[in-house]
Amino acid sequence: MKINEVIRVKRLELGMTQEQVAIRLGASTPAVNAWERGASYPDITLIPALARLVARVEAWSVGRV
To answer: Measured between alpha carbons, how far is 42 from 64 in angstroms, rounded to an integer?
Structure first.
């Protein structure tokens, strides 16, 4: 799965809007939209926060949260 697909799928699994993800990561809503479309990639400095967000989905799916 490509990074843009992962971002979109995990965001939807969390029930979050693009705006909510943007706020959580300190990015703009258009930036999140561009990531999901594959038009650009998240800045390398956002990867740890993005990974933590994705990990929340994984933790919920196995009942650890």
So the answer is: 27
Ordered per-residue pLDDT tens for the chain, 65 residues:
899 999 999 999 999 999 999 999 999 999 999 999 999 999 999 999 999 988 876 665 556 55
User: Rounded to whole angstroms, how far apart are CA atoms 7 and 15?
Assistant: 12
Query: Which stretches within 1-65 are classed as H helix?
Result: 3-14, 18-25, 29-37, 47-61
Q: Which residues contact 11 (CB under 8 A, 6 or more apart)?
A: 17, 18, 21, 32, 36
pTM of the model: 0.84
